[in-house]
Every structure is written in C-alpha cells, then in structure tokens.
Amino acid sequence: MSTDSRGRAARLVRGGGQGYASSSIIERRRRILTTARKMIASEGVAAVNMDEISRRADVAKRTLYNAFQSKERLIAAAIQQYFEDYEVELVYSTPAATAERMAEHLALVAHRNLSIRNYTRALVDIYYSPDVEPNIRHTIGEIVAHAHRPWIDRLNAERQLQPWINRDTFVDDLTRYRYAVANDWAHGRIADEVFPSTLIIGVMTMVIGATKPRARRECEEVLKDLDRFTRPRGGHGRGGPQATASS
Hints:
By secondary structure, this protein is mainly α. It has 13 helices and no strands.
C-alpha cells in the first residue's frame, strides 16, 4: 500500500478533508473524538451512539454525520487516534525492522491492551463486522500492519522470504493473525497472562515457516529468550497506557 493510499484511507476513517480548516472546527472534532474515546474506554463500544455523543460533546447530531458519516466511522476514527497517540510514546530498546523489534512491539502493545480491553474489543468488533466498509477495515488493519511491514520489507529486500511467499500477502496474513488473537483475548477466550506470548509465538512461527535459514534463526533466538520480551516492563513509553486510555 502506497503512502498516498494510506493517507486517503486515514482521511476516510477520520472524516477529514477540507472542512477541517478553522481552529474552531479542529477543536470541535477533537472534542467529538475525545468524547467517543472516553465512552469506549469506560462503557464499551455498545454504549456509543450518535445521540449521546452529540449531547456529551455539545455538538449537533447533524455535525457528527457531516464530519464522520456514520457511527462506525466515528468509532474507528476515535480508536485510530488513540493508537496513533500511543505509538508516538513508545520507546524501544531493539533495532528497527528485526525479529527482536517485532517481539518487543507485540509485548508492549499486548501489555497496553490489558488496561484498555474495551478499546481492543471495539476495534476487533469493527474489523470483523460483516457490514463495515472495506476502506474502514483496511485502515483498521493498518493500525497493526504498519508495525510488522518494515520487518517483512527488510526480509524481502535481503531475499530471505521463501519463493512462494508474496510480501504484501504475507503482511496481510500477519495482520489477520494478530487481529484473530486480539479478538479471542478481548472476548475472554485467551487468558491475560498468555496473551503477549501467544502473539509473539504465533507471529514468529509464521515467519519461520515463510523464510530462509538466516531469518529463521533470528526468530528462533527470540523464541529461545521469550521471557525477556513477555515480562512486563516499567512504563509503556513516556506516558503509559493509563495516561491516555480515557482521553
């Protein structure tokens, strides 16, 4: 997916466009998304409706629909903004585009998700909804795909992917796996204590099966030292998940 197409998809979810030019409109949009985020965090996605957001954010319901077109787009925009805000706070200790970085990222995100289960459940429910617009699902997919794409791109550039593996399809496959695990965890089918390790083991196993020896060894080293990545780390970036989960 090109940078330009990612931008178009993000604008579609966020309800962005030329209408958000003035500072007052930008502030109103921020207020709407903050209201939605607080409702998702405290009450769950089922409690989110346009009437209640209109009341709590003190904006006309027509304004909500003009800006976001549907409740699903508004929820997706609110969640996407939260995850983007969180991403910039992450501090990594491993090299970029490596198996170690992927494991560290998965562990950080999994431990963060333990404190924002409602956000994760809302995200996967929209992702798996049979009625969600394809562009919205694609943009939600990008929330996780952008983290493993640089690693897969590096492996592809170094000719470490097996000849039957298509790089873009493999990125999508990893995205689907990560959402499947998150979905089962968010709905209580995977225990909290094994959520991080389930993600890491599954992703590394998929990559081992798709790569040549050098890349496989990289993944195997991560699995041999799994506890290094799965044990909770003090703070999840500068702000931590609790600092932003309800804002």
